[in-house]
Amino acid sequence: MAKIHVTTKINGEDAEFLCEPQQTMLDVLRDELSLTGSKEGCGSGDCGACSIIVDGRLVCSCLMFGAEASGAEITTIEGIANGDTLHPLQQKFLEHAALQCGFCTPGVLVASKALLDANPSPTEEQARYWLAGNLCRCTGYDKIIEAVMDAAAEMRGE
Amino acid sequence: MATVNVSNQMCRPYVGDTQELELEVDTVRALINELERRFPGLGPQVEESMAVAIDGVIVQDTYLEPIGPDSEVFLIPKIAGG
Amino acid sequence: MNYLGKDVQLKVVGTRPIRPDGVEKVNGRAAFGADVAVSGMIHAKVVRSPHAHARIKSIDTSKAEAVKGVSAVITGADLPDIPSEEAFVGEGPANFREMSHNVIARGKVLYDGHAVAAVAATSAAIAEEAARLVEVEYEVLPHVISVEEAMADGAPVLHDDMFTQGVDPKPTKASNVAKRVEFKLGDSNAAFSKADVIVERQYKTQPVHQAYIEPHACVVSYNPDGQAQIWCSSQGQFMVRAFCAKLLGMDIASIRVMPLEIGGGFGGKTLVYLEPLALALSKKSGRPVKMVMSREEVFRGSGPTSGGTINVKIGATKNGRIVAAECETILQAGAFPGSPVGPACMTAFACYDLTDVTAFGYDVVSNRPKVAAYRAPGAPISTFAVESAVDELAQNLGMDPGELRLINAAKDETKAAYGPTLKNIGFVETLEAAVASQHYTSDLGEAPKGKRRGRGIASGFWFNIGGESSGATYVNEDGTVTVVSGNPDIGGSRASMGMMAAEVLGIEVERVRTIVGDTASVGYSFLTGGSRVTFATGMAVTQSAEEVRDDLCRRAALIWEIDADAVEWRDGHAHPAGENAGKFDPLSLSDIAAKSGRTGGPIAAKSSINAQGAGPGYATHICDVEVDEETGHVAVLRYTAVQDVGKAIHPAYVEGQMQGGAVQGIGWALNEEYIYNKDGRLDNPGFLDYRVPVASDLPMIETVLIEVPNPRHPFGAKGVGEVPIVPPMAAVANAISNATGLRMPNLPMSPPHVRAALDAAKA
Hints:
The complex is a heterotrimer of chains A (158), B (82) and C (763). Chain A is built from five helices and five strands, in the order E-E-H-E-E-E-H-H-H-H. Chain A has 158 residues and is of the alpha+beta class. The N and C termini of chain A lie far apart (55 Å). Chain B has 82 residues and is of the alpha+beta class. Chain B has one domain: Beta-grasp domain (Ubiquitin-like (UB roll), Roll), CATH 3.10.20.30. Chain B has helices spanning 12-15, 28-38, 42-49; strands at 2-5, 20-23, 50-54, 57-59, 72-77. The mean pLDDT of chain B is 93. Chain C has a domain at 465-611: Aldehyde oxidase/xanthine dehydrogenase, molybdopterin binding domain (Aldehyde Oxidoreductase, domain 4). Chain C is built from 20 helices and 28 strands. In chain C, the strands form seven sheets. Chain C has a seven-stranded mixed beta sheet, with helices on both faces. In chain C, strand 22 (567-570) and strand 23 (573-576) form a beta hairpin. The chains are: A alpha+beta (158), B alpha+beta (82), C alpha+beta (763).
């Protein structure tokens, strides 16, 4: 079967790739574009390790076809930092020891960024429900929530 | 003399009903040798499959650990973990 | 030497620096098992049994081999037939022949998901398609899932050469009971006559998966010269090397294992599944082979921990002194023997000072995946039952459950129920801190209409281990330092290793970079497990840093042309030791490093040790719940974990271990279970239906760190990773009991089960 040619924008840069019709966006990112920061923990949209932002929406890239990226603007974990400067969420995750093994971390960070993009002042409960789709088996979520709340406060200039 | 407790089930095929022994041993190696001398087969059993608690400190897979003259020595199954 | 005592001023140990591998993990660049690519690499998939128990009559691989792009297909016949050989590995004794048969079936398949063949092809999609064309003819056999079924008279027997060990006389008939274990102190049977109150009940726990978010993954390259390289995520690069060598009949030196970042293990990555298959496929195809499990394969084909049936009986006087205790623990081992029934029995009463106690148990095989280690293997299962029983005892005596535990708590010089006399333990301290905590003394608040609130407390014990470990410290030319650890870093151990080295050398932790060495670049280290890394590998790293520090003093002495004894190391500098040594400006580590060539060559030291005397871990947890009477849903409102950690090297990562372990325990308590259908197939092999706790299920997990130092470790550290999963199930169950008056003896305490118990109580 012929491959599909897709033109898109990833982390602010123009990107194009060829993909099989059934290939997921996660596989495209990892296998075609060498963006392996997005992880596959389940392949069924249950764990959130493959979270990316597509046109402002938080998406599990394992549930999206690569072909659907056509014309979209996509942010992955590789595009969260501003060049050499870590995003406040990344910095706070380090300061709060909000990661242990680090496998879920890219997805959690992308989801957290989507949260703060949509709601700069989440309550703890809102943060917990927003991140309910991102499984972490190491931390018990405590330090993740602390880091997200602290990053939000810093971004609000508090 | 160290007091060596061999009541654990893993010792039973070798020691029968013996619960405790008074042994003149100053290292785990000497302990294994002495146990083997008295109860053939128990030496390798302790060496391969058991841990030795010396005055409450659990050691395993080591010949060198010293045993004091009045030490309490307890043989238990080897410990691992996740 | 050690760094204990009040007069020792620690500058690095006990602080919370950013971990050295942190940035790579927040920007997506850290390489985990599935992130590696090697030139010429192909992809492989496993063919798995759809049956719980069946004889393999034939395997026809010809159609799969004919698919364009397929390079190799293997079955059990492609791995050597190795003899039965016991070895002590991650979770206890293992048999390499059984391990080999678990990696790929021979003769019979023993569970739904058991590997029967593997196919390598130019893409994962082709491999998957070809895998479906492998034709396996099965003769389906009757199966057993639960231990009760497996132990029943006339039950289908998994291994016709397995005779129960540990019973006298030796059985003449094969059965599913692999062994019986027993631990006895005093005479519990007779001692029950002294009891005023006796509680007795049967408890059941479900097998639960470690549920690391990263599925197993590896890349293996076998070269024509017989040398192989393996890139994989595991809890031990040396473990992978040893097991692959054993299972493939290779030399240890012919295999080099590169440890990648590991996306969670919790005991589940202390053994091999894919690596031997990928090695065989790479050998057969002549190409590097990548294998990655799907989540479904992780659930169907890799080890959970055992489920258990536990019968507990405890007797006490009316003033709360426990006089007799008995516990029978029957554990599911999965398809091959090796459940953690020994430690389950040994830990069952380890929190208490008892004179008459019996704990015995059975290791039972059934048609489920072979169990793997999971945090404090065995202890959470027996402890759930015992700590529930202790709570019931407190209720019957009308005593505070914390107070009852304090009356009976094990302390230094207590003779442990499993044998030895305890030493340097901090259990009473955890109980006292828990009982005095703001949480324990706070008001539960009024529950909304239709809901009930309750509070529970429970304790737990884990041995912790030491063992063989290696570490190295290298001074770089500019005076920065590289530390090499022999253990994969699961939860931040690179940070703690670097901190201990920095403390010894008197420099800022930022000047130390810690890496995890591959099997050819650092000495042997037993795997990351048993809460041993900060203790044992930390000890090795500390010793190597001390050797470097002593060498730095010798180099300074050479530069100053004075005796090495006349130099002392302070604050990262060599100083003349006192007036008589002469007057010299201090030399920094950088100054000395710059002259290392002239003073004898590179400054480096490595240490390989067999660390002994890991101090045991004790914990006490407090849990508040709110039970919804209509739905049976249990919400955890507040949770506090108190633990004796010896000495927290990096307190944030110690807290992280406590919080993560507690939450895994909460999942075990409330949600997690395997659901098998009548055909013995797993019905919930995914995160949607196997529900681990999510952020919205939980409150903050408060932590209280108690530090009763372990004198065997230079900084007093005890293992911290395992004991946090031991108390939670009983803490939650006891809270539910406090809220509703109902004793929930069966896990999980999920909404349907709680609702059913509430309904039954009403009826």
